[in-house]
Amino acid sequence: MKDLLKNLVEAFGPAGNEGPIREILRTEVEGLVDEVKVDALGNLIAIRKGSGPRVMIAAHMDEIGVIVTHIDEKGFLRFSNIGGISPFMLIGQRVVFANGTVGAFGAEKLDDIKDLKLNKMFIDIGAKDEKSAKEKVTIGDIGAFYRQANFQGDRVIAKSLDNRAGCAVLVKTLKELAGREIPNQVYAVFTVQEELGLRGAKTAAYGVNPDVGFAVDVTGTGDTPEAPTMAVKLGEGPTIKVKDSVVLTHPRVRQFMMEVAKNKGIPYQLEILERGGTDTGPIHLTREGVPSGAISVPTRYIHTPSEMADINDMENAVKLFVAILEAKLDEAIL
Amino acid sequence: MATVGLAEFLGNIISEAGVSGHEDKVAAVVQKGMSGLFDEARTDALGNLIVLKRGIGRAPHPRVMLAAHMDEIGLMVTKIEDQGCLRVTQIGGIDRRILPGLEVIVHGRKKLPGVVGAKPPHVQERGEREKSVKWEDLYVDIGLAGDEARELVQIGDTITFAQTPIKLQGQFMAGKTMDDRAGVGVLYECLRALKTMRHHADVYCVATVQEEVGVRGATTSTYGIVPDVGIAIDVGFGDQASVPEYQSISMDKGPGISIGPAVHPAIHERLKSVAGELEISVQVDPSPHPGGTDAFAIQIARAGIPTALISIPLRYMHTAVETVCLTDIERAGRLLAEFIVRIDKKFVEGLKCF
Amino acid sequence: MLLKTLTEAFGVSGQEQEVAGILREHVSPHCDKVETDALRNVIAIKSGSKGSPKVMLTAHMDEIGLMVMYIEKSGTLRFKSIGGVDPRVLVSKSVYVGRNRIPGVIGAKPIHLQKREEADKPFDLDGLFIDIGAKDKDEAERLVNLGDGIIFATKYEDIGNTRAKAKAFDDRIGCAVLARLLMMEKRWDFTIQGVFTAQEEVGGRGAQVASYALEPDIAIAFEGTTASDVPGSKEHLYSTSLGKGPALTHADASFVADPRLVRRLMEVAEAKGIPYQMRELTTGGTDAGRIHLSREGIPAGLVSVPTRYIHSPVSIIDKNDFENAIKLMAAFLDSIEERGLPF
User: Fold this and answer.
1) Could you give the ipTM of this predicted complex?
2) Domains along chain A?
3) CB neighbours of C143 closer than 8 A, spacing ≥ 6?
4) The whole model's pTM is what?
5) Are residues B332 and B289 part of one domain?
6) Considering B72, B189, B211, B338, which one is annotated as catalytic?
7) Does a cis peptide bond (omega within 30 degrees of 0) precede residue A163?
8) For C280, which of A43, A69, A81 is closest by C-beta distance?
9) Which of B212, B267, C13, C276 could form a disulfide with B92 if both were Cys (CB 3.0 to 4.6 A apart)?
10) How many domains does chain B have?
């Protein structure tokens, strides 16, 4: 898990520019499934054929980043956010573009740091002038944060655990299931543009037309000093989602997931995420509606370059996913 | 089978709990209350209750969908504190200022009465009263200690207002969740009227789920039904002190018939002309923004559905004492039935070329 | 003149029939089929010899405006906005109420009667009203209906050397680009689905249902987009500038344009020597947002004519940008015929 996760979190793949991460994931899942395809928006869809209901399991592979909007005559880049980014989080960070160009974030002179906004910031790639900047970067280029992963005991600090943690869970789940008979057809979808409004999952779910859907993503915690009220802690198991801004998990689906966890002795927590959404939202509203659930990996400091999660929560998420997919979902949910 | 009167039907359905995403019990009460008035009933993947009353005559029958949402705003348990108090979040838009001192029911392993804690004036700090209480300072007290509470309650359990129906003067009635069980009452009145009428159209009465969290049930149910005409029935702002006249419709002057982007003008005109013909009192209700009701979702399902919106005037929206006039609900039900019996192929085809 | 006719037409969201009529009249003689759907999108099909691919081109017919909410005893009208209108631009403007164009003016409390601190706050809708000169409610009711749309009474006029001012360049300028493309003599060998959409300003509602129905292989929307190349705005926040050519979008708040499509647009522009610029802000949404998420997803792009002061009673464009947008799109369509889709 650690090697897989390191490989995934350090990969490049901001929303709208997921090519590199998609190729890494394609390599990981080819051989584990019967078919791999990419749709019009760039979702990677790995299909395990067979019989039984069609189950879509989704993890978004994109990460937050920035998009270059303007290059001035001195070679500084102005930018806008790709996904939810606080300007305060950018100070001292570095950005990397698909071609390897690295830049530092800078800010205009401000009388009060509270006035810091993205449009008062810029990226410095060390270019001497506009011309040399434009040789490396063009308007519309999308960059991601530049950070390596650190593993300390069971904990990992890395960029883009949101949602490479989920991608790792999906890959490991497919590995565990490889060669085994299960009573469901599985469509594992690594979705694009979740950070821009759950876009990839919407079109992927329409195409897959699943009978049941599950997403795996990260969720916040309430276990840090003076944290907002949230009954989720790092290391106490993956969460079974009750609610977020875009879904209220169907009580029957939630109940089923809890029973599976209890029967298999897998630790879990119940999650209410007050702000934020995940791919389950668009999946459950696809066509005539799809009973859907979500598993989350508790993660601190989400949407910063230093997110933190616990490997055990991911391992247990894999166990929970495997157990869910081994169940006769038509009888359990439909 | 004899049906009960509107007040009794409405009293029954508003007494049931059904916070968004947890509408199964309400669906059962609604279906039971409507028994004898429809040919088929089913619930779909999200829990929408879809009741079909078939039309007569040669197929294909025009398909009319009437939608009223049965979910209600409420609270959800987010954390159980060690002293037994329940931390909560809102489901749907709640004015948190109505909560302190309110009686509620926690739907745990069993129904548990509770109260929303309110800090006595004596221990408030100076200036505290000038501000609204914050969400993070609100909690529900069910009179149990932490361990006892955890036996009976878990994270994700829903909480509803404990308010029982109140019969006010005349035809006015108050209670929780008139938004939009009043609309479900309109479906009931419409089906009761249709029982003795001949209609060509197939009528799909849908008690939708999850309207309060983003018109989710209407999105999927409309995709499945693909009606030729879709009509959402919801509540509108009734005239009350402190709301400007241009933002409200009058109580007891009939349902509001919306006009605006979400409304097909030909359906709007037909509803008005039927009302005029039968002298059913209605009010034109301008709605410049298409959002906020199931009509928002119905209109843009698939390749687009000719849609209309009817609103029952309601005072004190999103509180525990939402107030309606039963006469308005009866008028809306009758209007819809009379509209439906007049629907034919020509009318439906005309909705696509205008 | 197409630009004058289109920009002066009445067409707030949901009440686009006048604009729809003008466009049908112009494009019908050049198309195989022109239809309307349940939301009043005008769908004009121009099929080529091969039939495929299906290329959807859209521009929205609706404009932002106001709606009559209530008639006071005095005969003045209370209103709310349709689409995003800044209430600060409204006071002391002249308007037309309803499709019969009853003239009116937007009034407010005179400055003499205001308290000192009132003037520091912008007017909100509670403090504004429309006066059509009716002597009482009865007279007003004979002239206007509740729910009537209200448009600004702005006339189209050429100003400066190459520029024009009018209301509703957002998005009648896009409608004009699309109409001109459909009216071209040339017939490409694939199918063009020209869609004049309804209700963009209230959430891309027309585009959503039209793209579901038409299932195109690729889609491009035409928009009048923000140009903020004006005093008080920093260069990196201009977004676009007048006169520098049509603007291409990489991403806005509603979508990320298909990069292969954007590259093709840039290639054909450069090959033909057509000026273009990149839209440099990522705020705002368009019909492309709804279209690209239709069904299994549709690769989409956006070509815009820079427009100053959008969503206000009067906006300004440069007519060279308009002509170049048409040239660019014609060259792009040629490239599909010659080289196929860019993916």
Assistant:
1) 0.92
2) 2-63+159-332 (3.40.630.10), 65-145 (2.40.30.40)
3) C97, C98, C100, C102, C132, C134
4) 0.94
5) yes
6) B211
7) yes
8) A69
9) B212
10) 2
